[in-house]
Amino acid sequence: MAQREVMFVVGARPQFIKSAPVISQLLKRHRRIHLNIIHSGQHYDPEMSRIFFRELSIPKPSLNLNAGSGSHATQTAAIMQGLDHAIAVKKPSLVVVPGDTNTTLAAALTAVKLQVPVAHLEAGLRSGDFAMPEEVNRVLTDHCSILNLAPTRTAVRNLMSEGLSDSIRFTGDTMVDTMHLVAPDVRNAEKSMLTKFDAHGYDYVLVTLHRPSNVDDLTRLEEIHCALEKVALQMKVIFLVHPRTKDRLVKLGRKDSGETLSLLETKPQGYIETLALLKNAACLLTDSGGMQKEAYILHTPCLTLRNATEWPETLTGDANRLITNPNQIPSTIVKIAANEKLRRRISELKNPFGDGHASTRVADLIERAVMAKSNLLST
User: Fold this and answer.
1) Is 210 a catalytic site residue?
2) Which member of 39, 43, 120, 210 is catalytic?
3) Could you report the per-residue pLDDT of 106-121, keeping only the tens digit for each?
4) What 8-state DSSP symbol labels residue 265?
5) Which domains does the chain have, with CATH numbers?
6) What is the pLDDT of residues 66-88, one digit of tens each?
7) How far apart are CA 225 and CA 238, in angstroms?
8) pTM assigned to the model
9) Looking at the DSSP assignment, which residues form a beta bridge with residue 264?
10) Helices 46-55 and 271-280 sit at what angle, rounded to 10 degrees?
């Protein structure tokens, strides 16, 4: 039986993480599937992108579109233009799009316009907040896809409520697979990362912020930063500063904020290093989607600076709490950090994200789909 071309399109940190174990599984099926990895170039830092590829053992992409940053329209259009040519030349049997970034939507739209079927990895997530670009991306991508690979039962219900029952396949979450894969490396990195930041287990807060709603409004960013300074009066704060956030802090005149002992601002770390810090943090403050889930799996209490989450499962048992008012950050973090029983309670919660074998199920479904019929759009 002839090989079938499967095109996998990635472009940003969360996509690398959730795609890595699926890519590994598909590479094992090389006699039946030819895997073509395309990098959109959406990732904000090319060097960090290479670090993720190396840490997660993702093969070098066959093509980098170098889309770069820009407005949503500019970035999405650049990716679509590059993919239009790539898809026309390679003629894949299926295009796989993970997550909810502009890369996800651009690849799905381009493929379906060219009559190439789409599989959406991590389908069915909903926050209900259409002010988030990711919510728009994920809804539109689900409705473009003939295979919606749902990570949780909640995601399955969301897809069913939108009339997408025929496309749904419940797989579990591939990010769990990735975390299992790198767990030994994370354990090995813990001591060195704590030493690097002069920290000890559970005596610091880990912070990541990058969403426009938090960092583009300079007044709000100033309020958040002032709140972190108040937290730093009581415990160490390790702030992994996204380049977008760094640029805004400079505009606020916060160039030297990394000099203080208790509020340590530093560049983003690699995946393994970040997990090592997250595992040992007293609390995570974030506006990331994926890190809410990583914190849950590592039993680290989380405070999410958003009014809604696409991972409602994490809200169980106060494992994750939503907060919108920056003035509430200091008291809430100190209260969480002082709750010695909270981490143990989180560790006893049922894991709704899967058993670590989601990537095998996903690869099986992809292989079955592309080998069954030459034109999946006719199914």
Assistant:
1) yes
2) 210
3) 999 999 999 999 999 9
4) E
5) 4-173+355-378 (3.40.50.2000), 184-347 (3.40.50.2000)
6) 887 778 899 999 999 999 999 99
7) 12
8) 0.94
9) 238
10) 80
